[in-house]
Amino acid sequence: MISDPEIRSVLWETYPDTIHCADDTIYLMWPDFMLAYVNLGWTQFAARNGGEPAISLNWPIGSCVLDAIPAVLKRFFAENFSKCLRERRPWEHHYECSSPELYRSFVMMTYPVGAGEGLLVVHSLARETLHTRCVCKPRDILYRDLQGFILQCAHCRRVKRCGAKPTWDWVREWVTTCPANTSHGLCEPCYGFYYRNADLSTSGLQDTFRTGE
Ligand SMILES: [Zn+2]
């Protein structure tokens, strides 16, 4: 049960006790994107995926939600959250959050709540299955560029193989923990399918692409 009267007041139209006990990962943020509340599903998901106690320690109430989003996607999320609040309309976004063993896709629904007092974000598992991707070995010589950086897609977590033709590989060992000097961008398939209309920087994107699968 949610005991904080301010949170209950903002969520009164959305069955706060049901939200609190839901399996879905749900949180409330204020209009300035500060985390206001997380449900039990949030804590349980983090624990199941080895994220606790680090997530609770690093992302307490009052943290900025945008700080948890890779730089390449911050503007996309900030603009859509703001639009959702401004227009008082839900925003639906699909994304991947795979583990090393499991392919997982989620639907994220963001709802304006109260009198424009906050945004309720609900993450629901849409699909979970064993990966069928070809697994590549974590070999620095293949993936570090001349400056010593590894580029990982912020959406699907494939990493870019260096060379003349861009190739994105599934390196299982680097899914949960990125190696040192990893930067984040978007692979061409993810950019084209999920973010084409997002007005994100396309610097570094190639005209053609392929995956190593
Ligand atoms: Zn990708």
Annotate the secondary structure layout:
Layout: H1 5-10, H2 16-21, E1 25-29, E2 35-38, H3 40-48, H4 54-58, H5 71-87, E3 91-96, E4 102-113, E5 118-130, H6 140-143, E6 150-153, E7 159-161, E8 167-169, E9 182-185, H7 188-194, E10 210-211
Parallel strand pairs: 6-9, 8-10
Antiparallel strand pairs: 1-2, 1-5, 3-4, 4-5, 7-8
The structure holds zinc ion.
Zinc ion binds next to helix 7.
Quick tags:
3-stranded mixed β-sheet, alpha+beta, binds zinc ion, 213 residues, 5-stranded antiparallel β-sheet, Beta-Lactamase, 25% helix, 10 strands
Strands in their spatial order, largest beta sheet: 2-1-5-4-3
CATH top level of the largest domain is Alpha Beta
Percent of residues in beta strands: 25-35%
Order of helices and strands: HHEEHHHEEEHEEEEHE
Report what the structure shows.
The chain is built from seven helices and ten strands. By secondary structure, the protein is of the alpha+beta class. Mean pLDDT is about 90; it is low at about 205-210. It binds zinc ion.
Describe the structure concisely for a colleague.
With 213 residues, the protein is an alpha+beta fold.
